[in-house]
Amino acid sequence: MGAGTEPDGSSRSDEEWERFLRESVAGAANSPKEPSARARDVAKRLRAEPVRGPEGWRSYTPARPKRRTGWYVVGLLASLALLVVALAPGRIVNLFAGDDPDSPPLAAETARPTQVPPAEAAQRPTMEEPFRGSPAASWASGAAGITVPKAGAVGWMSAAEVERALARSRDFLVASGLDRGVLQGERPEKAIALINPHQKDVQDLLKTAFRTPSERNDPLLLFSRFQPSRTRLVGDVVKTRGRLTYREGERGALQVTADVTFVYPVTRPDAGGDDEIVRTIVRRELVLSWDDPDKVITEPGTFSIVSYKYDMTNGGCGAPTGYFTPPFGTDRRADEAGPEVDPYDRSAPVGRGESSGDGCGRATRS
Description:
It is built from 8 helices and 11 strands. By secondary structure, the protein is α+β, with helices and mostly antiparallel strands. The N and C termini lie far apart (137 Å). α3 (69-87) packs across α4. The strands form 3 sheets. Strands 3, 4, 5, 6, 7, 8 and 9 form a 7-stranded mixed beta sheet that branches. It has a two-stranded antiparallel ribbon with strand order 1-2. A hairpin with a 5-residue loop joins β6 (239-248) and β7. The radius of gyration is 46 Å and the shape is elongated.
């Protein structure tokens, strides 16, 4: 008899029953199994990640490095600083020395300063930057450095007339101290035309000063002039700083006082490879009287000169020649015998007058 019989009457061999019993105890090879807890967690995490497309054949996605923003910024700034220094070292020096060529000029002077300008870093002037290392580097150029106050009615003049007189007073300073032709030794005709032709003492000075200059009759008392054969102006800029003030004078006249410092950079006319630059610094004080024509003999549009003074450094010593004679090379030692003067000190009054016999001052800086 067989080992077993199926419900349909068929029989199984002993080997089949033995395999059936083993599989019943161990479980069938292809029967489904309950997943473990770890497997369920992995499956859940994989379902939560976004689906990514297939990577390219030669593609590579590197691991994201840790961010180091602070060091990156420091390195970038250091690189930029080195680049600026390499491209414009002169401007970096000027920046820390307070002599940036592109810096705006100082605010206009409206009253006498109470202290001297601070000391600048010692820097040699160049043909490109003739005011380098000087307080004048931050001054305005030409007529822009001469402050003109707001006009008001004074004495016999209305506010509009005072405004015109102030403008003409500044015109005289421009024609006498900034005109290119005058600086190169020409006769200052435009400036002379503004002086009252009936003022005898001044007219006498003008008649003799240009022909036979002397200590008392020297054109430099009123005009700035250099001799082209021995001096050449550097560039087209003269730096200025000063102001006009006004009040009522004698017989109701408008009295205008000008206090202005002029800085002239000059060199030898045949400098060649020698680029020595000297700055001649002149501070002038002029008192002008716009007189009432009903009380004083005058001409329309002219003024009388009440007084004139000036201080000068690096303009030469010795007998008057009618020109500033800046010292170059070994000649500079001869000018160092006088008293020390800070030519940029505008807090003190101007000391040299028309009858002064003072010697040359030795500039403590230029």
